[in-house]
Amino acid sequence: MDEEVVLQEEDLEGSWTLLSSLASCIMVFGGALPYVPQYQEIQKSSNSEGFSTRVCLVLLIANILRIFFWIGKQFELTLLLQSVVMIITMFAMLHLCCTVQNTNRVSTKQHRLSDLDFRYFWKWSAFEDYLLFCFGFTVLCAVITLLLLDSAVFVETLGSLAVMFEAMLGLPQLLQNFQNHSTKGMSVKMVLLWTAGDVFKTTYFVMNESPTQFWVCGLVQILIDVAILLQVLFFSQDTRVKLG
Fold first, then answer.
1. Surface-to-core class of residue 65, CB atoms within 10 Å of its CB (0-12 exposed, 13-18 middle, 19+ buried)
2. Is Lipid biosynthesis included in the keywords of this UniProt record (predicted)?
């Protein structure tokens, strides 16, 4: 009888370990999944105007900050790997947008980071400028973190900034849709996957007792996702076509 109980406990433990590993894999790669339909949409239409590249800016800053937060406060390795995957994904999105915009550009005027023109911040013509900006931001964060790493207040502030930026992920897209009075060119599938991912992610944070900043961030993201979906219903005359 005792042996049966032990075997059942081992089976349950093994099942839980398998589910936990699966959830971790989903956390690492699931965040990049919503951008697949948007990537395909831009490739298909050869037009990136419906997608706000400032989404990439927000996510790059958030995930760079999260990596330095991890250095100061080692939380789940899963979340660190997720940040690396998201950074690679955002660079892929930016590279595609730059390629499409340069192909469609009528004017020969190029906007570069070296121009130091704030009006064209994050609207540069060359992909290399985005890489250079992120490299400079990373070096700055590295220097400050090295100097203040022993300060618990600094580390917690770093974590709060990281999740605050991540919580604002959908805000640039929300504002762009509002300015355009349209959601044309934006993949509705991307937003639906955002919503599903944010619900899953928030549940994961709560169940794994992650730092409070993470699940608060998740709740804010869900609210913004819902607001964007309401824009789709409001602006689109044929939502079924956009979902197709």
1. buried
2. no
Output the 3-class SS for 137-184.
Answer: HHHHHHHHHHHHCCCHHHHHHHHHHHHHHHHCCCHHHHHHHHHHCCCC
Q: Are 159 and 69 in contact (CB under 8 A)?
A: yes
Domains of the chain, each with CATH number or no CATH: 28-150 (no CATH), 169-243 (1.20.1280)
pTM as predicted: 0.81
Residue 74 zone, left/alpha/beta (φ > 0; ψ -120 to 50; rest): beta
Q: What are phi and psi of 43, to 5 degrees?
A: -60, -45
- CB-based contact 194:221 (threshold 8 Å): yes
Which has the closest alpha carbon to 222: 170, 176, 179? 170
pLDDT in tens, the chain (244 residues): 555 555 555 555 666 677 777 878 887 888 898 899 999 999 999 988 889 999 999 999 999 999 999 998 887 788 889 999 999 999 999 999 999 988 887 666 788 898 888 888 999 989 999 999 999 999 999 999 999 999 999 998 998 888 888 888 899 999 999 888 888 889 899 999 999 888 888 887 788 777 777 778 888 889 999 999 999 988 875 445 555 4
Q: Which two tokens stand for residue 130?
A: 């985005």
